[in-house]
């Protein structure tokens, strides 16, 4: 993706010769979910440069963590120790269509 960013920056510099402070480019965003409907827990979003067709980034989102589901519950004795070691796989909360807005406007 670093190479794609370099190509896009170079193509922008050709259109705007001289001192380019930042690259301005039109992008298209596409995303999909593992399943249709509210039962889907995993999705991916991809911004694509319109001029070159290169993928600029890939964002994965999940509102599910299997470790949280099967791990100790809040009232269990070893919950605090488990939480200190646990790396949660959930990086999104909410409905399936909302991450698209999050990806577009807020990034990670």
UniProtKB/TrEMBL annotation:
Pfam families: Mutator (PF20700). It comes from the Eukaryota. InterPro entries: Mutator_transp_dom (IPR049012). Residues 2-94 form the Mutator-like transposase domain. This is Mutator-like transposase domain-containing protein.
